[in-house]
Amino acid sequence: MTVRLRAASTWLFLPLVLAACRASEAKPPHDPPAAFADVPSEPSTEPAESAAEPAADPSHQSTSEALNGASTTSTAMSSALAPVRAPEPLPAPLHAKVDRSCGHDPGVGTRLRSFALSGVDGKRVSDDQFRSRVLLVNFWGTWCQPCLAELPEFDRLYRRYRKHGLSLLAIATDEDPLPVKDYVSQRRLAAKVAIGGQATADAYQSNKFPFSFVVDKSGVIKASYRGFRPECMGKLEADVRTELENLKK
After folding, report:
1. Is residue 102 within 8 Å of 227, Cβ to Cβ?
2. What's the rounded Cα separation, in Å, for the pair 244 and 162?
3. Does 45 have pLDDT greater than 90?
4. Phi-psi group of 86: left, alpha or beta (phi > 0 → left; psi -120 to 50 → alpha; rest → beta)
């Protein structure tokens, strides 16, 4: 009896269970719990690849430039404060005897006349090339025997004092360069030699030949020697030395 009642009750509730299942299938699915809802991702902390390089700091750049400027100024000041080397003293004179009566021939105190001649090497030679140096200028010629004896003595002086500021210019009156070249080569002269200087020599109206001048750095004749006088070589060297010392002032 009891079994039959249980079976009957089961069959009574079965339609209700089926109806509940169908109703559940018809409803839309529930929204997911808030705990499982989509959470916006946190922004990335890494810099973007396309980000521009930071601009240079103007204050840093100005500081760097200031330091560079200060370094340059310091170097310049160090150079300015460096001790100045004293000029090298002149070597001992070649000639011990000095005849004070020599060197006073016409021309002293006047300016050396301008000239532009051809050198024995084919290059132009002019008076303005010797400014700021002491110049010993000698007028000579291959046809003049006293000239050929005197010029090597002048060349000897030139070799001794050229590094101290002396120049030697030998102006030949020859028009033909070949005899001049032969003589210069034979005597191995170190002097600057010009040719075609007859008109330049005539301008001084010298009644003696050869003749020579010691000219200061400004182009003024300080000593004049007309004719070849071996006894005057000591005085000529002394005149050269005086003007070389004046270069140091």
Report:
1. no
2. 10
3. no
4. beta
pLDDT given for residue 87 in this prediction: 79
**Residue by residue, what is the 3-state secondary structure of 131-187?**
CCCEEEEEEECCCCHHHHHHHHHHHHHHHHHHHHCEEEEEEECCCCHHHHHHHHHHH
> In the numeric block, which tokens belong to residue 224?
């004049």
For position 210, what pLDDT does the model report? 98
The answer to whether residue 37 scores a pLDDT higher than 50 is no
pLDDT of amino acid 243: 98
Query: What whole-number distance in Å separates Cα of residue 9 and Cα of residue 195?
Result: 154
Contact in structure between 160 and 174 (CB atoms under 8 Å): no
Instruction: Please report which confidence band the pLDDT of residue 47 belongs to, taking 50, 70 and 90 as the band edges.
Output: very low
Q: Are 99 and 238 in contact (CB under 8 A)?
A: no
Phi/psi of residue 49, nearest 5 degrees: -65, -30
- Domain annotation for the chain: domains and CATH numbers: 116-247 (3.40.30.10)
